[in-house]
Amino acid sequence: MPLAPLFPVVYPILKSAFPKCLWTGDINSREIALTFDDGPHRLHTLQLLKVLDKYDIKASFFWLGFCVDRHPETAKEVCDRGHWIGLHGYQHISFPKLKTHELKQSLEDTQKAIAKACDLDPKLICDVRPPNGIFTPRTLELLQQWEYRPVMWSVVPEDWVRPGVMKVLSRVVQQTENGSIIVLHDGYCGGEDVAASADKIIPLLLYKGYKFVTVDRLWQQANIQAIKAN
To answer: Which residue numbers are catalytic?
Structure first.
């Protein structure tokens, strides 16, 4: 059963239930974030980088540690272009399936892999997106305890099942609004179409007046809003 129609319904419920996650940016701002999961991939990611360069935008990537270890040169290429880097676990395993020490080890190993490949301070790599978008309240407690920032999404076109570039484009355009966090995939599962999809999505959203920013920028907005609320 296609899950894409369910995401717009489920998203606002989850956002209300788990407000400490980053689900969206400022709803009063035209700034949105384009994010990519499951990479880096030596072909899909490099093809995607050409598209991002073409439109001169910065995106955010949530990486699997084993993919970074497999393609460190691709990881370095992404980082050198100024894109934001986050964690997706060492392997694509839902966090609730891992014991506490296994989850901690998975995140630390991914941090180390990225830090080594990209010559970054591991402490700067603190954004985490749970594989499959699955977490529990306990997961969030642990991430907060370990000083990670949980990042989710608001636009999920289900591109990993490869419904076709035009279907992905349609879903993204219909669902995107101020502050949206769009998730696509550039890894081994579903990444075959990511460059073509991005090449359709980006110019259309730019034409609609949206500005692409990184997840870090959306966190800055969230912190400002929290200060104002207090």
So the answer is: 37, 185
